[in-house]
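Bug #77: duplicate submission created two jobs. Keeping one. Sequence:
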Amino acid sequence: MPTLTSKARTILVVAAENFELKYIPAKPAKNGQQWILVANGPGPTLAGEAVDRITQQVDAILNVGLCGALVPELGIGDIVLGSSVNGVTIDVPKTTRKSVVGPLASIDRVAQTVEEKAQLRETGAIAVEMEAAAVLDRARRRDVPFYCVRAVSDTAFEGFELDLNATRDKAGRFRVGRILAQAACKPLSGVPELLRLRRNSELASKALGEFIGNCSF
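Kept job's structure:
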């Protein structure tokens, strides 16, 4: 008799920046899954383009990356599993690892201030990010499940001295030179903030990779 084999599921994993993917295993060791990892820059336009460039059939789409906390219970490196994006219900991955499930706010800008985060919290969202809405739209067009897993890189009580939105170019990408120029103009506050951002981003990226590597989609 012929041997029956099951087709490996293909998961498209979409992030904004490559560093958000660096701790995620390109070849997962379990569940017979094949992952395609892509990153094309922050915001909905670039995230949508990242998905559109993948023409092969996929069985699910997973949006990953960092996020800003909107509720005080979330700390740096905590994992957030989206239950909805801007009010649209999405799939939640199965896991036994520690995480928080809740609604996400997806906007096309960095939430710069504590006050802006408080306003977003009034929508019921527990975290804010910039790409999930566009990636969800692509998943719905393809009629495949959509998941969103995020790691907290700034808390609800943290704002930014640097104007990160002003450092983005016309396409929406952050420009390192513009960020450094801003920090140089405010060395007493800007430089320490850059160091904090780098440290927190690294911690969150590691936490994200460890979580994704032990999760089922």
